[in-house]
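Sanity check record (used in CI):
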Amino acid sequence: MSEQKTRILITDDDEDICELVSQLLEANNFTSVTAHNGEDMLAKLAESRIDLILLDIMLPGRDGIELCRHLRADPDMPPIIMLTAKDEEIDRVVGLEVGADDYVVKPFGSRELIARIRAVLRRVQTQSLGTNRGSYYFNGWEFLPARMELIDSESTVTSLSSSENEILLAFVRNPKVPLSRDRLLSLTKGRNSNAFDRSIDSHISRLRRKLKDDAKNPETIKTAWGSGYIFTHTVEIR
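Expected output for Response regulator:
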């Protein structure tokens, strides 16, 4: 039996972009599905298995930010890479804040897009294969990286994006050790681009909120001035 190809859902109202990206994906041994608005995207997700979503921010009706937020409410949804316009940095930041795993700026190069898709898929595959088995306990929290979930002392479950999951995993495996952005990139198998380096701050800001860590005076993930960040709690692994 042949290996099942990775299915990627392209959501963009520009039919020419959908066609070009679809051809690129097919040439790189992926299977592509296209949607031109939010309702079409949700219908395609319901119809068949999707392994990753390419989601344009500027869509008619419900925009990409709203759709990303909606998808992230379901922990079983696939990873999301946002497609954003060149001069809309605020949209890229907001996209990461609502749970996107990465973003690509239009116009993008073929190699960059394929590299980012493969990087996100590698992180998800590592988690699904059980490399991150077990639970991590700290300060009243249980962290289950294989399920990409946080559970608080009242048993409330909070879902994490794959990027948030990888960053938190790097912290709990290195408690009380200052980690620079470069070191976090290395530990999370992330990209070495300056763009992602800046986005780490957005992921950590979102993690702090999910951990109920005071943004002005965080106690769990502290800023280590001049060296990056430090996870302050003792961690127990079970």
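Residues 223 and 229 are 5 Å apart (CA to CA). If this sentence no longer matches the regenerated tokens, the check is flagged for review.
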